[in-house]
Amino acid sequence: GSTYSSKVFRVTFLTLAASLTVPLLGVTVLLDCPIDPQPISLKEPPLLTGVLEPNIKLRKAERLWENQLVGPESIVNIGDVLFTGTADGKIIKIEDGEIQTIARIGHGPCGTREDEPTCGRPLGIRVGPNNTLFVADAYYGLYEVNPGTGETKMLVSNQALIEGQKLSFLNDLTVTRDGRKIYFTDSSSKWQRRDYLFLLMEGTDDGRHLLEYDTVTKEVKVLMKGLRFPNGVQLSPAEDFVLVQETTMARIRRYYVSGLMKGGADMFVENMPGLPDNIRLSSSGGYWVAMSAVRPNPGFSLLDFLSEKPWIKRMIFKLLSQETVTKFVPKYSLVVELSETGSYRRSFHDPNGVTVAYVSEAHEHNGYLYLGSFRSPFICRLNLQHV
C-alpha cells in the first residue's frame, strides 16, 4: 500500500508542480525585465588555499560607533581624526570618539531608494595636499570639502557633458601627492548607484571607467572605457600607474599615467577570489583590496553560476526586486593584501559575516585596518599586530 500511495503522491505532486509552473512561465515571459544581461566568461575561481586559506581573522575586529553611522563606505584620516561619507548623504568627522556632520552635498529626505539621487551618496573620499577632502558623490559629482568649515566646492558636476555623456555613477577617486590630478571612476553610463545590482547582473561594459581631472586646467579626460563596473581606484606609490578594480570581472586593470608606458594599460590581477570594491595602499608598499562578495572554491559561487546564463538572470529580475536578490548573496567578508606586483600576501576572512559584514574598503592607519561598509551601521577596526 505504501508504494501505491507514494506513487499517487508523486504523480499528484508533479501534476501540481506542472500546473503551477506552466502559467508561471507564461507570466514570466510576458513580464518586463529591467535588465538586458550579457553572458560573461569567468574562469573557475582560484582555490582558497595557501595565503587565501579561509580563516576567522576578521572576527578579531571591533565594531566602532555601532548604530551611529549609516553605511560608511570610504574612510580617511587627517592625523587621528577620521572622516567618512554615509548613506544618508553626510560627510562625517569623528574626533576623540565624537561624531559630527561637517557637510552634505545633497539634501534630505534620505533613507529610501527613491531619495538617493537628491540625498546624494558620498562614496570615495581622499585627503588632498592642503588637508582638504576630495569626495566622489555618486549622484552629484566630484567635490572638494573643507573639513574645518564644511564648505563644499564642486569640481566636476555629474551634469557636465564629457565626450557627449553625463556622469551617471561616480564611484571612487585617487589624488596625486601634489593635488594636481584626480583620477576617478564612473561605474556606468546607464545605471545609478541605487541600481548597482542591475549593473553587476547585466554585465555590460558601459562604464567610462577611468577619468582624469586636472585641478589647474579644470579639464576632464576619459582615459579608459569599455570595462565592466569600474569601482575602486588607487595610484601606485611611485604615481606611475593607477589601478582600477573591475568588479563584475573579479579583476584589477592597470593604466599607466607616466613613464615609458604612459597611456598604456594591462592586467594587474585577474580571476580574484571575490568581487573587488575599493583598493587602498598598504604600509608594506602593496594594496588592500576589500571584496564586496566572495567566489568560494571549493563551494558554490552564485555569481559564477549565473555569469553565462542570462535567461536565469532575466527570470530572477522579472520576479524579484533588487532588495530581495541581495538577501541571497552569502554574507562572507574578505580582505586581501596584494604585493606591489599583484601577488597575494595575506587574506583576512569572516565567513558568514559574524563580526564584519559587507566590507567595501580597508583603510590602514597607524597599525590598524579600518573597514568601511556600504551597508553596515558601523566601522570595524582590526589591530594588524594581532592577526
TrEMBL record:
One of its GO terms (molecular function) is arylesterase activity. It is a single-pass membrane protein. Its main location: membrane. Keywords: Glycoprotein, Membrane, Transmembrane, Transmembrane helix. GO terms for cellular component: endomembrane system; membrane. Transmembrane segments: none annotated. Belongs to the strictosidine synthase family. This is Adipocyte plasma membrane-associated protein. It comes from Sula dactylatra. The gene is Apmap.
